[in-house]
Each structure stands twice: as C-alpha cells, then as structure tokens.
Amino acid sequence: MRSNVEAEPKSADGATTGEALLEVRDLRTYFERPGGDIKAVDGLSYRLQRGRALGIVGESGSGKSVGVRSLLGLQPRGARIVSGEAWFGGRDLLAMSAAQLRQVRGKDISMVFQNAMDALNPTLTLVQQISEPLLWHGICGKSEARTRAIAALDSVGIPEPERRVDMYSFQLSGGMRQRAMIAAAIVTNPSLIIADEPTTAVDVTVQRQILSLLRALKDAGSAVIMITHDLGVARYFCDDIVVMYGGKMMERASIKEFMAAPKHPYSQALLGSTLVIGDRRDRLTPIPGAPPDLSRLPAGCPFHPRCGQMQDADACREPQQLISLGAGSEAACWRVVDER
Amino acid sequence: MATASQSLTGAGLIDDGLPKARSVWASAWSRFAANRLALISLIFAIVLAVVAIFAPLIAPYGAAQTDYAHSLVGTGSAGHWLGTDTLGRDILSRLIFSLRTAFIVALSSQALAVVCAVAVGLVAGYVGGRVDQLLMAATDVMFAFPAYLFTIILVTVMGRGLLAIGIAIGISSWVTLARLVRGQVFVVKVNEYIEAGRAMGASGWTIAVRYILPNSVGPILVSLSFGIPAAITAESGLALLGLGVQPPTPSWGSMIAEGMQYVLGAPHMLIWPTVLFVVTVLAFTWIGDGLRDAFDVGE
Amino acid sequence: MSAESTLTRTDALFEVDRLGKVFDTRGGQVRAVDDVSFTVGRGETIGVVGESGSGKSTVIRLMLRLQEPTSGRVVFDGTDLATIPSRRLGPVRRRMQMVFQNPYGSLLPHFSAVSNVAEPLRVHGIGTKSSRREEALRLLELVGIGGRAADLYPRQFSGGQQQRIAIARALALEPDFLACDEPTSSLDVSIQSQILNLVQDVQRELSLTCVFVSHNLAVIERVASRVLVMCRGRLVEMAPTDRLFGEPTHPYTKILLAAALPIDGAEPIESSVPDWDSTVLDKADASLVEIAPDHFVRIAQ
Hints:
The complex is a heterotrimer of chains A (340), B (299) and C (301). Chain A has 340 residues and is α/β, with parallel strands linked by helices. Chain A contains 13 helices and twelve strands. Chain C has one domain: P-loop containing nucleotide triphosphate hydrolases (Rossmann fold), CATH 3.40.50.300. Chain C has eleven helices and twelve strands.
C-alpha cells in the first residue's frame, strides 16, 4: 500500500487534471493463485467528469464489475489490487486504508446494485436504511435524516413517501425497491454514483424509469459509472463508453463515435451480434466460441482466438497497446493503426 | 472453474484444449484433499480402521489375556508399551480391540441412522404436503425424547450386545439427520433440473433417487462423520453408567471408567484410552469440517 | 364474432381454451393466467412476450402439464390433456419437451453431458446403454459439442455450451413440440445469437412446432411467426409478427415497443413511453376482438 494518497495527480499528457472528477490509471486486480494469477482486471484506465456518464460494457469474465468494485475496496475476497491509481478529489482511492475508504463510501461515492432484494436489508425499514449513511457520516441528526429520507424517496418517484418510509423493503414492488435502493444511494448527494447493472433484473418499462431517474441525477451534477452488458442501455444513457474483454480494455470512445464507427474488432463483433428489431437477415452473426476462461487466457490480445478479422496471428499474440485515435478514443488492436 | 478452451468454430470446443472430466465428486474430493487437516485426519481414520479390522493380528496380546505377574505395570515397560491394568491385561492390546468395538458400534449405529433418515427425509421433502407434516410430527415426537434416556431404555430392553448397542444409538440419533436431509431436499427440489426431469417424463422415484438424493449427499456425509464420534462417545457414556458393552469385550468407556478408579496409583490406565479417544474424536470432527467445506462451497 | 370459432384450426397441434391458473399464496389468491385462448399450428413458432408477472412462463408449463390449470383446458393433438391420468402421461410427454432459462440449473450436475442427453431415453426405456450413448453423442455433435467434450460435466462448460447440451437433451425423444422458456436471457449477448441460430436451425430441420417465451422483443421478432402479448396473466394482443410490430394496437404492446432501447435507429426520446394503468385489466368484461385478419386485441366491453 503506497503512502502518497494525496500527491498532485498528473494526467497522461502531462497537464494537471483539474476537471476530471475521477481518473483511473492502469488498474490491475488479480486473484493470486499458485498456478498463475487470474487477472480479473488488467490495465483499466479512464477519466470521468462531473455530470457525465461512463458506460463500462463487457460480457462474462470481462472484469467490468471487479474493476469498479476495486475503486471502493469492495473487490471480491481473494482479489488483490496489484497496481494502479484512482484519483478522486485529489486523493488516490487505491492507496487509501480501509478506514479512509469507509469515509468515502456512501458519502462521496455511492453504489447502486443489480438486485435491490439483495442490497436492501429486509430487517430494516426504509427510513432506517436511507438514514444510515447520513447518520453514520455524521451529516445530520435523526429527525433531519428522516426528512431527507422522505425527500429522497420523493425524488426517486415513490408515491406517498411519508407513508412508505416506514415500510420494509419486501413490502414494495420490484420497481419501487430498485428506486428505494437508489434513494439510499443518493441521499448524501454523492458526486459519483456507481451503478452495477442496475436495470438488468427489472422489466423494460421499469428500466426506462430507472434510467430517467439516473439521468436526472446526472443533470444535477453527479457523475455516473454504469456497468452494463446491454449496448442499448449504454447508447441511451451514457456519454462515453469503455469496452472490456478478458480483463483488458478493448476500446474507449464517446458513445456517439462508438455507435457510429466502433474501432476494435471485438466492439464491431459485439454490435454485430446484438439483436435488432427489424433485422431481416436469415441468420444472425454471433461471435463464435465461448467467453474467455481467465485462468487460461491466450497470449497477447484475449479476443484474438475468436476474432474474425485476425490476419496476423503473431501480432495478435503480442500484448496490445492502447492506440490513441484522437478525441479521447483509443482501441487496443494493432490493426487500428493500419486503418487510420 | 475450468471451461473448455476456445476455437473459432461453433461452440468453441477443441479436443486437445479440453480439461479432464471432473465430476461433482471429483471436485469435492480435491477441495477436501486441499484441506491439510482434513486429509491427515482421514488418513489417520483409515489407519485406525485398518487396525480395527486386523486387531487380532496387530495386537501383541489378547484383549482378555491376563498376567497377574505383571499387573499395574507402568508405561514403557518391557513387553507392555502402554502398561497393564489391574489384571495384567496389556493396555495397548485392549485399546486396539476397543477400537474394533468402537467402530462396530459407530458404523452400525450410523448405518441404521442413515437408512432411516434418508427414507423419511427424502419422502417428506419430496412429497411434501400432508405426508411431510405427518412424518415431521412423528420425528418431533422422537425428538422430544431425551436421546440418552432413550438409548438407555433400548439397551436395557435389547441387552448389551455390540449390535444391540449400535442399533440403540442409531435409533435415537436418526431424527436430526432426517431433518437435515429433508431440508436439503427442499433446497435441491427447486432446481430447474428437477422440473426438467418431470418434463422428460421421469417418475417420482427416479427423480427422488437418481436426481435429488445424489445432490443431497453433502449433509449426509457430514452428519456421518460427526455421528461416528458421537456414537463412540455415546457408547462410552453408557459404559460409564455400567450399561456399555459386556466385559470382557473392551471398550473405551469401560477402560476410562476403570482408569478413573486407579488414577492416582496407575495413571497410565486412564491417560492412554483418553488420549486415543480425544484424538479419534478430533480426527472425525476435522473430517466432518472438511467434508462440509468440500460440499458446501458449491456451485 | 367470438374469438373462439376463428381460433380453431384443423391443423392445430395445441388448442388452448380459456386457460386459467390461480395460485394460493399467503398474500391471497394470485391469478397467474386468466382466460387465455390460442392455437398453435403444426410447424409454427409462436412467441409469447410479456414482463414479469405476465404469466407467460406459467402458460407453457400448463401446456406441458407441469402444472394443472384451475380452469380451461389444453388440447394436444386432439386430446384434452386433463383426460389423461398422470401415470399415462409418459407417451404424451415424449412428444413435448422444454428448454429452460437457466442452462446450468436445468442440467443434472452429477451427470456428464452425454449422460444428461441420454437420460430421457433411459427414462422411457429406449434402447440399450450403448445405443443410448451413441444417440446422445450424435445429438451433441448436432448442437456443436463433439468429441471428448461430451464426457465433461456441466460445470465445466460455459453458459452457451450448457444451453446447447440442454437443447440436445430436449431433442433426444424426437418431440413434435418444443417449449423454450427464455433460453437466451441468462446468456452473454454475443452468445445469444449463437443459440438463437441453433434453435432456428433445429426447428427448421426437424419441423418442430415451438412456443418461445421471452421478455425481449427483438428475440421474439426473430424467431416467431406469430406473437402473443401477455400482461398480468391476460392475453392482450395476438397477431402475426410483422403486423404486431408494424401496427401495435393494445396500449401495453405500444408501451413494450416504446420502452425498448435499440442500438440503432432513432434515439429513444425520454418521454416516449406512454403511461398506462395495467390494473384496468383486472376489470372483467373484456374479450379478444379480431380487428384485422388474424390480429386480435383485448378490448373492454
């Protein structure tokens, strides 16, 4: 654990990063094993400004979830953050002690999870849960916390919040539970909200409502990191996107750029395999093969065994560099250079 | 977890990249074996079992072989490594034979307990409804009986033979396992492969015995490995009450009971049975822990 | 014009007539399925779409008699399933099989892949041990799991591969009918297309009749020739696929279409999802009205 938590962060191009709310540099989180480390996250870097939404997209084994959980020290048991920096508010999250991280969690950075049933405590009433971060961080007293909890429930669109605030989470419908979980996350006005697949387990109509809610928070100034496997959600909600595969970053771009012209072969294949209403082709174009087994990753580019565009296997077996394509876009594939 | 490696075609499986087939049992075994304590305990238990089976060949003396000339001889004496008791019987040999007693009692009691528990637990869990309520009411009645008292009553009725004691202990201990099995059946029942089994037309019997039971084995094995020391302890307790196996068949309990009387003059009579007893119970407890971790750390 | 008469087809494999299922729960009675009627023609693939609580999964379980209806009836190939006693269901069960949502959960974890696929044959006493194994291996090759992989255990496969094994197993008894309950919902996006291609190939080659349940409209549009839309246990709209997507009529159908987030086409507008209170469905007195050939919509009287 390094001790320079509060050094002045410098961005990759040398200038100081005043505007970025969060800057992650080369995050690596490994599960250490005697036979060889499982590199769940192997070199994740991105920047996020206030009021912007970053989508981290990937499939099984991509490392998208472990990546953001590492920021808050919530990585799975047995995983260790091997290297990297995460500059937030002038401090490196990855260098913080557990006690320091506890000060940040729930106050400056909040998390919204996939399954509200699992995230909310069934033995606590909503007011108890939502007040908890306020009271714990000493932001206000109990009666003020209750007022804020009611206001938070109201802001997420739960009707009759004064009545519902004394209910238990299991008394609410699925969609309302998800909103209640978001209320608990925003009651302290965090500057960064991390949402880990918040709409995967809900109906499509509820999904729209949740995304509207998150968009309102974004417009009010919070930054959002949204983990998702659904490119439609990323397109609708996010401003920028990072695509991960096998623990590595494949591409980073603005969402518009990405949707119009994805650069990395994996991004192209992923978009190509996504179902679209109105698709008249006789057969779909999936990505052949299976998601990577992190304990037996191929050399170099983790995607190359399944890559339909692989022309030079030797070049693919080399570790790929992130090649900058201007305007904040980059892709980790040597072929991108050829096409520029 | 190993997944088959990738290729460019179809499902992504190429023969030479494939791992070895690893069944549920193989996975559980390797988890168990990775636990040093559990593994050593298992080896120890196997050694004990071998000793118990070949007792007449291994023990230097007979269990009832008296030698009044060398009675109450201490530890480390010539010809009697662990000493002798009041009648000159060799402690080591008696311990070896008492191992046999212990295993017979433990295994017979556990075998009976498992058979009853699985039958009742599986039926109650799978059929559910009224049948379940009825069976659980019956087991509750049994549960209400203090197990020890029940064992004593049974022994008084059935006599003090080895098997009789084993059966008595088994009868008073199957109830808890039945509930565990039933609980596990409930957990397994909601898996989609059970519904898939019904969809393909499998009979209730097939589903219960071929699909549910093998996946409920975890708690059974764990209960077995804790049940063995429990049965041994129960027999020893009976022995202390004078209701254990008939002498001269040696049993731990009776050796400890005798040893207690001579503890000041001949402590070795108490020490060695106690040490072996404690170590054996610990070994099985650690095996049980290892099994629980091996099966619970599941999918 | 009563919906019933126009729904009867002579080439129907399934006739579902006013099917209803009520569950008794601690919170009271739940109408999982209410007054659902439709037919499934031989060789057709019907899509059933709806959100959670729509009853779509219950409907196919009622069709396969994995659950008993509380009202209405299911007629399979001319026979009312309710008239067949449980112990005689075997031969009927052989003709209708199902693929489940959770690929790992639907396979027996303690059997190898080939044993899983051979199990339906064993249950019905078909062939010998070695002939069953051969047939299972053949089916696995068909779905793309060949060679030594057949002896691996479910845990050793990825989700998409597990679903292939499940599909092979469903085909073992050479059924006439295949029910698919969200078979791609728990798979990675890039793998979903693999499995959908496989299901379509299988369906075409073996002339299977299918009912495909999903909450994902794009999936339904791809596989189904006719679509049933369900909400709160009721059938609200039923039409050929092109018509349903081109001229959605029921408010709920319109909501589902508006709420979808595509990766191409027009950007969905924030407010494009209309408001509609689904509890209006609980009021009785509505029936399916045929507003266009083969296009039915539930309209309150």
